[in-house]
Write a structure and sequence with these properties.
2 domains; eight-stranded mixed beta sheet; Rossmann fold; about 425 residues; six-stranded parallel beta sheet; single chain; alpha/beta
């Protein structure tokens, strides 16, 4: 079985948990003998033929135009193919909309002139706005690449890849699985951008099957997007544990509390800031670190400065993979106060470093872990109480840390991959 996988992220091209989720599931699928042709945003028209588990790390590259390969010489790798990419803006290349229009007009419309939903999609993508030029380019490249490949079905992750998936499905008549890691309702705390919402709605209704990363997400897509319950399969994410329980490498002598994620409404950074202020009013020997970037960053920085927390509350900005691991290794407590979190891989990663997790009840990951504190995102006093209790009781903190490591090592992608394979098989039978 060969899968055409469309994703906006894959290590080392990442801005959040989607990349790690795609990596983990792909590696597990490869170990089952499933082959994957991966298309991610790149500066050149290339794909990554993954045939064995180690390929998920090696990332072998194939150019659709062999002549283009020559300019890279022997330095062809994923880093060179995304050089200059705007990682933080999720915009990996910007080359205009000409190719997208040509593909649509010269190839697509010939076969789907009466397909109202796809004409509507073209209208959306032809407009300017955040991400849309990049999505147009990705769509054009992905369609070009897919024409040259042989595969059994399409597996597309989140709205950024749905335009490409919808066109490729129309041209190939192959089954399409829509994998929902996040929705516009989660990211925006409401309806959000109507164009993105409409693309998500289209994707959920045109695809053959939907994989939701949690029961929480499944309920949202049924309620907000009116998705067919019979199309939905819940497959919780997992985590690739390379070496759980690594020795802590402290940055500060004081207990350290970390927030790692996009500094946006969805992730609840303002609640983390309020928690920090209340904790520091009662216990001065604590450090708080906020890692990430986002549209709320400037406001949070100004607000923290006005509170006079000084070096007790630090901002790291966007972190490389190595830097992220350093923060997790140094942190004693990890807080995820997300307003709406479809899953949330970050707590699993924190737990693998022996960092005690306090997570929002409004998250998918809360459905599968026991050794974490689960709190309503808005319950600041409860979060403060937990942090102070752990700081004042180091033995309790140590025991919870050990339990976290033991639990996360059992949450592996092998079982999730089996469930995904079942979805593939069901699609191919129909």
């Amino acid at each position: 079985m060969r899968i055409l996988m469309l994703s906006w992220e894959f290590p080392p091209v990442m801005t959040g948990g989607l990349g790690m989720a795609c990596y983990g599931m792909t590696k597990a699928l490869l170990s089952m003998g499933i082959e994957v042709d991966l298309i991610i945003p790149t500066n050149e028209e290339v794909y990554f033929p993954l045939r064995k588990p180690e390929d998920a790390d090696l990332m072998p590259v194939v150019f659709t135009d062999p002549l283009k390969k020559k300019k890279f010489g022997k330095k062809i790798n994923i880093h060179s193919l995304v050089e200059g990419a705007k990682y933080l803006d999720m915009a990996y290349f910007t080359t205009g909309r000409r190719t997208f229009k040509e593909i649509w007009r010269e190839e697509i419309l010939e076969g789907i002139k009466n397909t109202t939903s796809l004409e509507f999609l073209f209208d959306i993508l032809s407009k300017d706005g955040p991400f849309f030029p990049e999505v147009r380019n990705y769509t054009a490249k992905a369609v070009n690449i897919a024409k040259q490949l042989n595969y059994d079905l399409i597996h597309a992750h989140d709205w950024l890849t749905y335009p490409a998936a919808s066109l490729i499905k129309t041209l190939s008549d192959k089954p399409w699985i829509s994998h929902i890691h996040s929705t516009e309702f989660d990211r925006a705390g409401g309806a959000g951008d109507s164009r993105i919402h409409n693309i998500e709605y289209m994707g959920m209704h045109l695809c053959d099957k939907i994989i939701a990363v949690s029961g929480y997400t499944s309920n949202i897509i049924m309620e907000k997007y009116m998705a067919d319950r019979n199309k939905i399969k819940i497959v919780h994410n997992a985590f690739v544990v390379e070496e759980a329980g690594k020795p802590k490498k402290r940055i500060f002598k004081e207990p350290t509390v970390a927030f790692i994620g996009r500094i946006t409404l969805q992730k609840g950074p303002d609640y983390f800031l309020k928690v920090a202020r209340k904790v520091l009013q009662k216990e001065k020997k604590v450090r708080f670190i906020m890692a990430g970037k986002g549209d709320m960053e400037r406001g949070i920085i100004h607000h923290s400065a006005s509170m006079g927390m000084g070096t007790k509350f630090l901002f790291s900005g966007y972190l490389s993979r190595q830097e992220l691991e350093s923060i997790l290794s140094a942190a004693d407590i990890f807080v995820m106060p997300s307003v709406s979190e479809p899953f949330g891989i970050a707590p699993l990663e924190a737990m693998s470093y022996g960092t005690v997790a306090i997570i929002s009840k409004q998250s998918g990951v809360a459905e599968i872990i026991e050794n974490a504190y689960k709190v309503d995102f808005w319950d600041i006093d409860r979060i403060v109480s937990i942090i102070l209790d752990l700081i004042k009781n180091p033995e309790k903190l140590k025991q919870m840390s050990q339990s976290s490591v033991e639990e996360v090592t059992k949450i592996q992608w092998k079982e999730a991959a089996r469930k995904i394979f079942d979805v593939y098989s069901e699609c191919l039978k129909n």
